[in-house]
Write a structure and sequence with these properties.
This protein is α+β, with helices and mostly antiparallel strands. α4 crosses α5 and α6 packs across α17. The longest helix has 26 residues. It is elongated, with a radius of gyration of 30 Å.
Amino acid sequence: MQILSKEQEILKTRKKFEALLSMIEHRGEPHTDLGQIEENLWNGLLGLGLSLMQAFVANQGTGDLGPTVEFQGKALRRLSRLHSRRYVSVFGELSIPRTVYGTRETQKHELVPLDAALNLPDSDFSYLLQGWSQRFCVQNSYRKSAASIQEILGLSQSVRSLESMSRSMQDNLEPFRAGQAPPNEVDEAAILVLTVDGKGVPMMRENGEEPPTGRRAKGEKANKKRMACVGAAYTVDSFVRTPEEIVDEVMRGEKAAERPKPKGKEVRAELIRVIDGEEVNAKDKIFGWLQQESAVRNPGHQKPVVILMDGERALWSKAGEYLPEAVMILDLFHVMERLWDIAHCFFPEGSKEVAEYVRVKLQAILSGKAGRAIGGMRQKGTKSRLKGAKQKILQAALTYLENNKQAMRYDVYLEMGYPIASGVVEGACRHLVKDRMELTGMRWTPDGAQAILGLRALHINGQWEKYQAYRLEAERERLYPYRDEIEKKLRAAA
């Protein structure tokens, strides 16, 4: 909407305000619908807000500094006509007429004083609208988010514009993270826990490649996925337990009531992608961050550092490279998965023998007898003369346990009060990645996926408002580092 004169805008705004007052001062007739009044007030307030913004912008002038202006060592001339700019606020859309300085109309505009004075964003959408829109987008699909925004604010935004907004919003994420202070030491707990896991993200097929149709060949997937590496860092107090207590807890599927809560928890997720022309490994990004977290949150090496993961060899290799001082623990739930697989090779599914077998073997492993337990299961497999699928399942499970035996010293871990299950990162994989990235029909580009993963992590970590404030200041400095100088010239020209 074109900005009118200051006086016209103020008069228009007063009329809208008086109409709202008249609505609420009028005594309700029989069957007055308060819900309808509420809706009318909301729509009226949006209209009033737009009028107030238009009045404010009209009061700022066009940014005219005279026929010529000295700027960054150049003499720029005022172009002959005003150039209007689209600005979409949470109240609605307006068009802002501005004086522009440069060499000629067809060349790049070298200075737009009003843009700097008003700190206008790079795009057409206000910073507030961007923040609100992306709050929806980090939790729901772009299409659903656009529908929600339209229902509440009456604004139409395309899926493409919301995707572009996500990408641009995460541009300041790395410097923001680098500048964050660590949790206050008094708010921290005794053990620093680091956890890492992976979760697949469905990706778009490249170069117009079509997905397979009909019956797929062996190993062929309907959708391509790229692995997101998910990390979490937090501190927790020591919690000493006995093997018997753990067995009782996990077999009943219950959590210990007195279990200490994680403190200072932060999660992140990274995809393999290209940055500045070079491919960056997601695992290196996550373990590099965890290495920094360990240095910052445990500077005197006074806290024990624990890494909880599943048995993926690539993760253990990276952990040894980046955090050689850490105690590496195999997530107990991955051990239990293998124990259930093994038990089902020997006993009917759902039988009492299955649960009892798992209980006995879990008790032995938690008591520091992993090697003996693995040997016993291998021996039982030989005596049972398993064949086919069961033999393969047994062998795979036993190999997994054997390969990770050094990270299964649970008797020591329990005595030290260390956590032995990675529920935090398992929850992060589900909440941060799966709940958003695997919505029905979702297909991602690497950059689009990383943008949402980064913003979603901010939201989950409770850093959203802080980041929006940081981004606003960073964008102002990037777009208008000369803003103070321009404001002085505008005051002098007024």
